[in-house]
Amino acid sequence: AREDVLLVNLGGVRLVVSEDHALLFEPTTGPSVRFLESITQRLAQLRRLERLPAYARGDLTVPVPFELEVVEAALIMGTARLDNKLLRVAERTDVLVRKITGPSGIANPITAEMLEELRRVKIQLVQLESRAEAIKAAILEVLDEDEDARELLVSKTVEDRKRKEAAAAAMIEALRNTPVDAPAGVVLSPNLEITVTAEEGEEETEQERLDRMEGETEMCEELLEYYLQRFETVHSESERLLDSMRDLEESISVSLASRRLAVNQLELRLSIATFAVAIGALVTGAFGMNLRSTLEMSVSWFYGTCCLIVLGCFLINRLLLSWTQKMKILS
Q1: pLDDT in tens, 99-115
Q2: Please, which contacts does 91-95 make with residues 24 or more away whose CB atoms are closer than 8 Å?
Q3: Which of 14, 28, 58, 195 is deepest in the core (most CB within 10 A)?
Q4: Beta-carbon neighbour count of residue 58 at 10 Å?
Q5: DSSP-based three-state secondary structure for 101
């Protein structure tokens, strides 16, 4: 709030609000157009209610200031915009969770598209949470001080100042018109300046003024507290969804790590088997071509030697696997 005006920047709507009019920046944007439709309908409904007799208004017997209507319309636009974003992000979150998870955890294959969608959803949730947190902090800052809350009522502030100025002017005029006998040798100037505090002209209505100010402050605080709960709901829900996405990301990381471990174990098993087969090939290469007896011409010795080589490879493979399991390299 500034002197006699309010500066509003909420939900894509930027306003300068005074006691009886408002200046809207960038009125052709989507949020501004929706805001104009909303505030026009609210003001038209308020004018219709004011024309009704008192008994037909129900609880709406206290007139709502213009600037408070504009601020409430901006708050409605802000909450609606955040609610819509939260709804869209929640739908994307549900779809992503169904794609990735199954009844017993991470069941489906993880693709690059899923990881990219998870990253985008997290970015949107962080932005949504930060915006709701910023608006919450601004509202709480206003609610902390009663004077700040009452500054939302620009028309009441201007009215109080005009009343004080009128009371002071009336008192000054009365004092100017009162004849005063000057002491001997003293000449009174017609331009004599007289200073009167506003409280001196309002001593009789001070308690009523304080009661009225208290009621106006409570009205502003109730309005802000209601929308504070709305923004708190958005913030809490976005925070919950963000925590859910982080848990999902951790689950994906654990699942991918488990799969990498399985692949590494498979590679180790294949390496051990390859090593065992390589030893058999080494024996065959070293002695197969250098025999100088008739055994190399015997079919029975050929099959027997092949069986011995295969059996040796199998034994070497088993011994290496047993050693790796004993050293807890393989499970």
Answers
A1: 887 666 666 677 888 88
A2: 92/117, 92/121, 92/124, 93/121, 93/241, 93/244, 93/245
A3: 14
A4: 9
A5: strand
- pLDDT digit string, tens, across residues 287-296: 665 566 666 6
CA dist., res. 181 & res. 130, Å (int): 70
Alpha helices in the chain, H assignment, sequence order: 30-51, 66-100, 112-144, 146-150, 154-177, 206-287, 299-326
How confident is the model at residue 43, as a pLDDT?
A: 78
CA 277 to chain centre: 61
Residue with tokens 């910023």: 134
Half-sphere exposure (Cβ direction) of 77: Cα atoms closer than 13 Å: 25
Q: Is 251 exposed, middle or buried (0-12, 13-18, 19+ CB in 10 A)?
A: middle
Chain centroid to CA 168: 50
The pair of three-digit structure tokens given for residue 53, joined into one six-digit string: 């007799």
Which tokens belong to 279?
A: 């030893």
* Long-range contacts of 283-288, Cβ-Cβ distance < 8 Å, separation of 24 or more: 283/309, 283/312, 284/309
Alpha carbon distances (Å) from 221 to 59, 143, 218, 226, 229? 18, 6, 5, 9, 12
List Cβ neighbours of 251 (8 Å cut-off, separation of 6 or more).
101, 105, 106
What is the Rg, in whole angstroms, of the alpha carbon atoms belonging to the chain?
A: 42
User: For residue range 111-130, what is the model confidence (pLDDT) as tens digits?
Assistant: 888 888 889 999 999 999 99
Please give the Cα distance from 108 to 100 (Å, whole number): 6
pTM of full prediction above 0.70: no
**Nearest-angstrom CA–CA distance, 76 and 135:** 13
Question: Cβ neighbours of residue 70 under 8 Å, at least 6 residues apart?
Answer: 6, 8, 15, 17, 22, 39
